[in-house]
Design a protein that fits this description.
single chain; 5 strands
């Protein structure tokens, strides 16, 4: 699940460790997204590149988004 580090909330995922940066809202459509980044990834070129995933308050793992 979630745990605190000096970098913020981080969770394990299939491809590595994911940091939750923020929950952002689209002002035009009104939908929400998680802004995430990998702090460790199997493919090092994807490390620290922010990306968005659809918000789901019931999700407990990144794979559920």
């Amino acid at each position: 699940m979630f745990f605190e580090r000096e970098t913020g909330p981080v969770m394990s995922a299939y491809d590595g460790k994911v940091q939750i940066i923020a929950v952002v809202s689209n002002p035009l459509k009104g939908n929400r997204h998680f802004m995430l980044q990998y702090v460790r990834h199997r493919d090092h070129t994807k490390t620290f590149d922010p990306f968005l995933m659809e918000y789901d308050s019931r999700a407990t793992w990144v794979e559920q988004l």
